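Lab notebook, bench 4. The sequencing result for the construct came back, and we need a structural model before the next group meeting so we can plan mutations. Quick request posted to the team channel:

Model the 3D structure of this chain.
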Amino acid sequence: MIRATSRKPEARRRSGGPRLLTAVYREGEMLYAAETSFLGTLADQSATAAANARLLTATRQTVMLKERQRLAPVPSAPNT
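Done. Here's the predicted structure in token form:
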């Protein structure tokens, strides 16, 4: 079994922490450097995709809130 985490510090910062990718191999099976490199790259890209999805959701919520505030009626001052 191999566990590959995002190796890029900026990917960890954007994603809120290291992400874990687990690959399962048969007992006694040897891993090649190319496989390990590929899994590391896959972990990096997965962390970036997850961070982008969170940013997109947050941006959509912010836009929706601002639009609701823009469309909300302005309360009138009470007559005294």
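The chain has two helices and two strands.
Will bring this to the meeting.
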